[in-house]
Structures
1.
Amino acid sequence: MLGYPNDAWIQPPFYCDYGYNIVLGSKVFFNFNCVVLDVMPVTIGSNVLFGPAVQIYTATHPLSAMERRTWREAAKPVTIGSDVWVGGGAIICPGVTIGDRTVIGAGSVVTRSIPSDVVAAGNPCRVIRRLTE
C-alpha cells in the first residue's frame, strides 16, 4: 500500500513497481508521469515537490553481460530529505540520498548522493551552489 497521508498529492498518471516500499512525509507533490521503481524502500520527507516525469530508481542490474543473462536484479534504497524540490525530468539512481532543502535541476541525472542546502544539476548531477536562507 502506498504511504499516502491526506495532505500528499499525486497527479496521475503515476507508476510504481510495488507501492508498499514508498514512504511519504506530509505535503508531498508528484506532478504528472512520475515513475518510482520501489524494489527497495524509497523514503521521502515532508514538503517535497517533484516536477513532471521525475523517475526514482532503486532497481539495478549487473554490469557483466554474463550475469545479466541470468536475469539477476539488485536494488539499493533511495532517500530524499524534507523541503526538497526535484525539477521535471530528473532521474534519481539507486542508492542515492538527497539532503534536506536541496534543489535538483530539471533533467538532472543524480548518480551520487547530494548534500543538504544546495542547488545541484547536470548529467551527472553535481553541486552548483550552496543555499542560504
2.
Amino acid sequence: MKIGVIPLFRRGIVCDPDWIAELVAMLDEEDVESLWGVEHVLVAENYKPNYPYSADGRMPTDELTSMPDPLAWLTFAAAHSRRIKVATGVLILPQYSPVQLAKRLATLDQLTRGRVMLGVGLGWQEEEYAALNIPFAERGRRMDENIRAMRALWTQSPASFEGEFLRFDRVFCDVPVVQPGGVPIIVGGSTSAAARRAGRLGNGFYPYVISPEDLALRMHELEAAAQEAGRDPAAVELTVWPGSWQFRGSLDPELMRRYLTLPVGRVMIAQHEGDTPDIPGLRTLIRRTRDVLGSLGA
C-alpha cells in the first residue's frame, strides 16, 4: 500500500529550507511514496462560511497556518529526493489558466523525471474567486474544460482545443511531459459530482472527510460515470485519508478495514496527526500506520 504525507503547514516551519530537507530525507528513509501540498491563493478575513467539511462552515486553520504556492514548494521539496513523488492536494484548478499551468506542470514533470501528480478541486471560497476575477458559478464547467485543455497540450503536438472559455489552434507546449498521457490528474472532493468527474476525466479520486460507507456510494457513482464515458473504472486510483474522517484514523484497525474493502491504492496521513507535531513524531505515525496496514494484509 502506498502512503502519502501531508506536512505541517505552519508559519515559520513550512518554508524553512532546512526543515524541508530534513522532512524529505526522513520520508525517503521510511519509503513514503508521495508528499502533498495544499492550496488557497488567499483567504478572506471574513469569508462566507461555505467550508463544506465542518458544521460551522469554517476551515480548521488559525493565524499560524501558512499555505505557500504548492508548485513552487513541491519543486523545492522534490529536488531533495530522487524517488519521492510530489502532488497537490488539492490545487483549485478553475482559478488557473490551463495553458500556463500545463507548461508549469510539464516543466516540473521534466525536473522530477515523472514524479508529479496534480490533485485538483473546485474550491468553496467565493471571496477567493472574486479576488481572482473568476465567476464562482462557473467553476465546475471551468474545471472540466481545464482538464481537457491541459491533456490536449500534453498529448498533441501541435495541440488544438475549443471550449466555452478557451480555444487554441495548432500550438506547441515545447516542454514535453515525461509521463505517458500527461501528468496524472486526481480529482478531489466528496460529492457525487466529484466522483462522477473522477470517473469521466480523472486518473484518480481523492475524497475528504467521508465515511467508508459513503465512500462506497461515491465509488459506485464513479464506476457508472467511467463506464458511460467508455473508460475502465479500475484505471481511476482511489486515495483515502482516514484521519480526515476520524482523527488518527489510520491507526484504527477496524476503521481501516472498512476503508480497505474498497479498491484503495494510497493511504494519506497528515503530520499533525502524530503524537508530536515534529518530524520524529511523523516518522512514528508512518511506522504505526504501516503496522496497521500490514496487520490487515495491505
3.
Amino acid sequence: MQTYRIAIVGGGLSGLYAAYLLEQQGITNYVLLEARDSLGGRIASASASGHPAPGMAPAVDDIDRFDLGPTWFWPGFQPQLDRLVHDLGLECFGQYEQGDMVVEHSSSVPPMRRRGFKNLPSSMRLVGGMGALIDVLLSRLDSTRIITGQPVRRLRCTDHHVELDSEDAFGHITTWCAEHVLLALPPRLAEDSIEFTPALPQALALQWRATATWMAPHAKYIAIYDSPFWREQGLSGEARSMLGPLGEIHDASMPGGSAALFGFFGMPARFRKNVPEDELLPLCRTQFMRMFGPQAATPKAEIIKDWALDPYTATVADLDGAGHYAEVPAATVTSGPWSSRLTGIASEWSRQFPGYVAGAIEAASLGVQALPKPSS
C-alpha cells in the first residue's frame, strides 16, 4: 500500500485547484480520488446536442457548451478567481442583458414585458462555460495522480497516517494511505457518505450535517436553438414566473456558438423527484412558448439537470433545503486524533464566498496553505 503525502477526496473545482497548487509548489506526492467517472463536480456542461459534456480531457477549443451548474462570476468582488481566469488564458464575457424582461404572474394574466435592468457589477461568464476552467486545470495536472470512479467510503485515522477505502463500480475496495486528507466535497455529503474511524467530534459532525450544499436542491432546464430569436424581439432572455415550472430564466447563448435559454425550476426538489423527465420537458417548452413566442417550441436540443437526484452532490436532507446557510462550518478538527490530519476545502468552507465558484478557489488555497509540514 503506497503512502502519499496528500490525498484529495473529490475532483470538482476545489480538488483540482488544490492539486494545481500542490504541483505549482513542486509537491507531486499526492493522489486525487473522484467518485464520478468524470471530473468537475458541480461544474458540468451540456453540448449543443444536449448531451452531457464529460470533463475528462482538455477541450479548450470546444466553446459550444452550456452550464448545468454554476454559470457566473463577478471579477470586481472575486479578484482571486479573476486572476486565475486571466492567468490560465481563459476568455470571459458579460451576461446578455439588453432589452426587456418578461414577467408572468398567473395563468389568468398573459406574460408582460417590462423594462430590463442591468446587474452592477456585471455577471461574467466564461467562453466554453465554466467547464473551460476545469479543462485548463486538467491540462496542467499529472493525470496519473487522478483516479475517477472511486467514491471514498471510509477514512481511518491511525497513529501516523489516514487510510482511505474507495470502492469501484464492481464493489472492489482499494485502500490508500496518506499523511493528510483534503476533503474536496461538501461537508454535509462528507458527513453523510463517509464513515470516519474514530468518529468525528459530535459537534463538528452536527455542524457539517447542518451545512446546506450549494446547488443540491436545484435543477436547471436548458433549451438550445440555432439563433437567439428573442433578441430580435427586443428581449434580453431574462424572465420571472410565478406560474412555472421555471421560476427564473436567463439567456445562456454562447458567443461563437449556439443560442440558448435556461431556467431554474421553481418547484421544490421533493416534488420534482415524483415527476418524470418526459413530463417536465413539455411543461418547460410550453412555458418558453408563453413567454418568448412560438419559436421557443422547437429547440434543437434540451436537457434537464436535477442536482437533487445526483448522489454525489445531494443527500436526503437537501430535498427540503433552499441551498442557503447562515454559518460557515469549521474546516479542521482542533483536537483529538483527527487534528492536523483532515481539512475541508470545498466551496462551502469558504469564508467569503461559500457555495460559489470563487469559494472553491478560496477554500482550496487556504487548505493548501495550512498543510502541516511533511513527517520526516
4.
Amino acid sequence: MQTTAKIGVLYSTTGPYGALGRDGWAGAEFALHDWRAAGGEGVELVFFDAHADLPAYLDGARGLIRDHGCRNIVGTITSSARKEVIPLVEKHDGLLWYMCPYEGFEANENVIYVAGCPNQHLIPLLDHLVPRHGNRPYLLGANYVWGWEMNRLARELITKAGGQILGERYLPLEETAVERVIADIAEKRPSFILNNLIGPSSYAFLAALRRLGEHDPAFLPENCPVASCDLTECELSDIERGAAVGQLCALPYFDSLDTAGNRAFKARVEAWRPEITHISSIFASAYATVTLCIAAIKSCGSDDPVAIRKEIASRPWPSVIGDLVIDPATNHSALPFHLGRINADGGFDVIASRPAIAADPYLTGERPRSAPSLRVVS
C-alpha cells in the first residue's frame, strides 16, 4: 500500500440539498479527526465540492481518481449524482461508499451501501402509519428518481394491501409554489402524507400544511401526519419556525438516541466543534462510513477495492449507528430503524425503533429480517 491512503469525499455544500452535503462533509472531517486523535496515521481525505451541478460530480470523481489516486470515494447525496458517478468508478474498479437513504433496486460490486433501502425505512414506516392513521395516503415526491421510485413502491404496497392512493404529485427540486398541492390535499383529505420532496420544496410544503392545519385541525400532525425518510436535523433550521413540529421521519440515527455510545460520540463532537448542537443522520452516517473505510484499509493493509470488499464482509464493524454488517451478496449494510417526531427544540424525539434490519434492496424476501413488530418507546 502507498504510504498515505487517499480517500475522496464528494459532496455538494450549496444548492437545494446543501445542508445535507455540509453535514456529510463535516462528518467525514470528524472521522479523520477521531482517527488522528487516537494515534492513527497514513490516511488523507481529499474533498471535492460539486455545488449541486450534476456534471460536476463526474468531473470531481474523475479528478479524485486520476489526479489524487483515490481508489475509494465517499459521497454523493442524491441518487442522480450516485448514478452519474458509478460508471466511472466501475471503469477504474474503485469503490463508491454511499451513505444516504435511497430507493433501492440497486446492488453494484463497486458500491458499498451504508445507506437505508426501502425495507429498512419505507416499509417499517408504513407498518407504523397504516394501523394508526389509515390506508388512504397522499404521495409527494421530488421530480427525479428518489421521488418516483419511493412513491411507486408505496403505491404498490398500499394498493396490494387494499388501500387507496388519494393523490400523487411531483415538484422540481427547488420549486416552492405548493398552493395547488395544498388545495388538492385539503379537498381529498388523506390519512397521512408520504413526503419524498427534498430541500426547499419540502420546507415550503411543511410550512404551508401547518397553516392549513391551523384552519382545519384535520391536517394537524396528530391527525394527518407528514412522514419522510430523508429529513434530518441539519435541515430543521431551514424550515419556518414551528412549522414541522409533530411531523415524522424514519432514519437509522437520531441525535436524541439515549445510548452510551451515542452520548460518548456527541461529547467528542462537542469538544471538536461546540457550535454543532444537533448531530444529523447524514453527519453520523458519513462519520461511520469514513471510519469503516479507514478501518478496512488498515485492517487489510491495502486500499485495493478487491481486498476491501472481502475485508468488510468478514465481520461486524462497530459504529455510531450500530454494528455494520455488510452483506457480500449486495454490498449493503444492515441498519436499525428509528422513527422520530420533530420537536420544538430543533430535533427529533424517537417514538419507535427496530433493531438492525438486513438490507433487501430488490425486496426478494431472501434476506433475514428483524422481528416484525415495532417497539414503541413513547
